[in-house]
Amino acid sequence: MIVTLTAEAPISTINAILAAANSAGCDARTFDDGHGGAVLGIAGSVTIAGLPGISAVLEKHRPYMLASREGRPHSPTVVKVGNVRIGGGRPMVIGGPCVIESRESLIEAAIATKAAGAGMLRGGAYKPRTSPYAFQGLGEDGLRYMAEAREVTGLPIVTEVMEPDQVDLVAHYADMLQLGSRNMANFPLLRRLGQANKPILLKRGFSATIEEWLMSAEYVMAHGNPNVVLCERGIRGFDTATRFMLDLTAVPLVKELSHLPIIVDPSHGTGRRSLVPRMALAGLAAGADGLIVEAHLDPDSALCDGPQTITMDELSHIIESGRVLHAALLTGLEHQDRLEAPAAIA
Ligand code: PEP
Ligand code: MN
Known about the structure:
By secondary structure, this protein is an alpha/beta fold.
């Protein structure tokens, strides 16, 4: 069940609910709702009548009760990453190379990414490559170069973590931990990310349904980490004309279903650099809280994902037009958000 508490709820109410859940043998988690109140997710049903400060009790809800918008329909989550925020306002653009190639090239790319107007830097140190013979990344050296690039530019950094045992190391350097598409249903890794003290960028598995994706977010949250940003990065379709099929319907749908922020990856979602600018803007038009875009100083020489990688100039154009588009859509989006009551659960 989901229980929502007002900002005025006494701590004794939370304690009483957690104690009732505990004695009923139900897992329970409590998170701030971002507005002074709290939301409790209880894996089961307990009696809590008569406690002060309870604003709603939902006995029926979606299986991802912590990630669901049902408990907090009017308070979308804003995730802080270093000194920036994702969700609830201006779209955040994350730019940078697919993979960290060398110290010098990364620092130069980071400076150009910042100059293009991006708010965060991406770059992989541990890469989930389809071929075991392809470049697998620079490992901890790459993480050090990312940290240095943050020193130079002030941009918070996001990088992928592939194994539970890598989480502490990657979290030591990075501001945000990326869980890649191929690992979306890696439950030991999800559990471990729930214990990390850094926000998580949770990419959609390319064969995952939206419910499976939100259940992966639930894993991270149920293990203690409420700071999850979802990323739509394309799913497998039947057509080989593009690398994946960027499912932009997922964006407004996820906004109806969940309070978590969602960003769009038009690079992996298309696999073709000529399609990236328009699909980036389409992602923002669909209501995304941001973008993650692969950009490189010389895309043709990129060590990974060159065909979908754009130049820094193109990144700058996307960011500029994205700002104009977002401002133009703002009034319409606000109107839309007022219409968006989440569907009642039967
Ligand atoms: C990436 O961001 O470089 C990446 C490997 O993404 P995905 O997990 O979405 O394929
Ligand atoms: Mn890539």
